[in-house]
User: Fold this.
Amino acid sequence: MEQRISLITLGVSDLGRARAFYEALGWTGARQPDDEVCFFQAGGMVFGLWTALGGHGAPGIELAHNVRSTEEVSMVLAEAERAGGTIKRPAGRADWGGTTGAFADPDGYVWEVAHNPDWTLDENGAVTI
Assistant:
């Protein structure tokens, strides 16, 4: 697993209110593909807001590690399990068109491992939406 965090997602109870708050702080360029999630480019990573409708709900946090191929999702999940993590969601096709799975570290923090064909991942691991 390459050393990087691609995405930090906060579970929110009201997506519109949360988006308005961050925009009032000066965050710009929000991408909201549906009523469940909103993404902001944050340097070489992405900051997301996700409602309970999206399966995360408030309060909560999920870290994400994006990879360059569908096959890498299963490989990173297996590596995490060998290191002592617990698989929370096995690799599978996501309804947004990519491949995703998740593991929890020994303290219960959840990491999504994802390949999103619509996001660019450069040679240093920076993600661009």
The chain has one domain: 7-128. The CA atoms of residues 12 and 25 lie 17 Å apart.
